[in-house]
Amino acid sequence: SYANDHVGKLAGLLFDAQVEPKPHQIDAALFALQTSYLPGVILADEVGLGKTIEAGIVISQFWSERKRNVLVIAPSSLRQQWQQELQEKFLIPSMLLDPKLKDEQLASSTIMRSEVLICSYEFALRHETNLTRQWDLVICDEAHRLRNFYTRRNKAPEGNQS
C-alpha cells in the first residue's frame, strides 16, 4: 500500500523538519498523498489540530520528489504565517506574491525556482490568468472561503433584469 511504501520516506523528510507531527497528522498527510488519482482532497480537522502541519508534510513530500511548482492560496491575514511555518518547521523557502511584482514573480523562467508561492484569495481572483499553469500542488487554506468568492463572482447584477 501507499502508506507502507511512504511512511519510511516521510520519516526521512521529517527527520530534518523542525516539527514533531502527531499520528493523526501523519495519517492525514498519507491520505492526501495516496489519493493522487483524485483531483484533490480536503483536510477538515477541527480547529487547532494542525492542518497546516499536515499540508506542510504533503508539501515536503512533493519537495523531496522535485515537484516544486507549488502554490498556497490563503486568507491575506495568514500568508506571512504560512511563509514562516514553511521556513521554520519544514525548511522550505517561499515567496509572497505581490500584485506590483507579479509579472516578474510569475515569469516562467523564475517559476521553477525553489520557492513555494503564496498568495491571497483576492490575488488569485484578480490575477487568475497569471496563475493558470500546471501546478504540481495547490493548497487552499480556509477553502470554505472559496464559496464567498464564487458567489460574488457569479452573482447576477441587481437592478433591471428581464
TrEMBL record:
Transmembrane segments: none
PANTHER family for the chain: DNA ANNEALING HELICASE AND ENDONUCLEASE ZRANB3 FAMILY MEMBER, SWI_SNF-RELATED MATRIX-ASSOCIATED ACTIN-DEPENDENT REGULATOR OF CHROMATIN SUBFAMILY A-LIKE PROTEIN 1
Record Gene3D superfamilies: Tandem AAA-ATPase domain (3.40.50.10810)
Species annotation: mine drainage metagenome
Domain Helicase ATP-binding: 32-162
Alphabetized UniProt keyword annotations: Hydrolase
GO molecular function, one term: hydrolase activity
Protein name as annotated: SNF2-like protein
InterPro entries: Helicase_ATP-bd (IPR014001), P-loop_NTPase (IPR027417), SNF2-like_sf (IPR038718), SNF2_N (IPR000330)
